[in-house]
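Quick note —
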Amino acid sequence: MKNLAYDFKTIAVVLGLSLLFTIPVKAQKSDFKYYFKKAEKGKSDQFFGLAQHYYYGDGVSQDFKKALHWFEKALEAGKGRTGWAEYFIGRIYKENKELKDYEKAVFWLEKSYAQTEANKSVASKVISDLVPLLFYGKGTAQDLDRAFQLASSLEEKEKPLIPLLAEMYEKGLGTERNDTLAAKYYEIALKNSKDYSGELHFKVAQLREKTTGLSSATWHYLESAQRRYAPAYDEIARIPVRFYKGEELKTLAFQVVDAAPYLKDKPRLQYVYAAMIHSKGFTNYQNYAMAYGYLKNSEAAGIKEALPYLGMHHFYGLSTPKNESLGAEYLLKSSTDMVSQYTLGMMYHKGIYFEKDDAKAFNYLLESSKQGYPPAGFPVAHMLENGIGTKKDVVRASRLHNALILRDANTNSMLRLSEMHRSGVLGRRNIARADELLADYKRYSDVCNWCEGSLIVSCTVCEGTGHGWKYSRNSPRTANRSVLCGQCDGSKVETCPFCFGTGRKQKPNNSSTHSYDLFMRYLFGQ
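Predicted structure written out below.
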């Protein structure tokens, strides 16, 4: 029993010693009173810790003057933690309203930066505070080159510096101008920002438009306008409605324009709104009468883009008495517009209202295609390949097909160019290229991705074996050759569960087609 009692005493002593060297020490490090008593007694090792307590207000009311005093005392004692004390002193002179002194801030931050080789942990912090002072010339002569050099030296860009770095690239300050990198860093700034300002979205949109085109800038213009940034409304009025691709983008576009505070005073925005509410499938809200009224306002303001839509209203009698001649007149008035050019080209080609004239049809379609209207490209390539309304030129047709594939992923061009390579009409047969284009066609077209149009797939239950399964403790699932698969009855295949045996991609029930596309399908005779 004595031995047992001795053992208990030993255990208690060991536990006591372990607690003595762990919990109290850890608690003391976070205890303001501990640092204060030690520092008051002249313990220089605690000067820096006490200064931090005053700086952050940890365990005591925040007091930057006292923090400054103890950071300076730590430096005098040689306990400044290799650049950290200088950094905090610089921060106090830079940020505190009562003690603000940019010259002193630069002085101390430079002293801290000089020690970053010995202490790399302080580098990113001191650079993020020093760069703005150098950039704006606060407390020192403006030095854009050094500001850019420091800002771009960080491996992981500090969040506060990202908008500044974007501005440097945008305006060519301290470095060569680079709109692509400017847009990249502004977008990163947007992700890091809490307010997602409309102005920042607007900057990104302008840079994206310069570098990659208006289509890639569309979303940012709309986001900017949604945040009521006034200049963005003028910009979204320039965006063709066909750029609003995808349900999310369509919804955003409609919400923005529908709530536009300047709609009544902006005839171009009225045209955009009219195009939206005119279009089937664009929104759940379709109103031909309202669209017609806005289009007439836009026409009165000299907006030519409204004329093709007015032409359709009169040609079809949408919310106005049907008048084919007036509809055709509107289209001819706007014959420099790519949409009207395409429409007129197909009307001449099919002999609808106008007398059939393939030469005129080709010229109209070619001009529409040159302006970048996606539906016009394939008819032009088709007419070139077959010599309809123009001289036959299969090489030029193949080049146009290639351009349409690269620009629009045009599935009709993929299929036709595949056939051209397979048949050898371009001079020699290229089966490899033909198969490649056919594979692209299947991937991008309406053909089911799962069965690739074959209507059947390997049975998903028996995995193409035709056998059933048996289960046991040792082997949870093994093939049972004596039993046929209950799904495929031993045939090893089943109807494709993704397209339900249609061979086509399944579309949502609420999907519908733009009324203008319906008009074009009618002209194509599809």
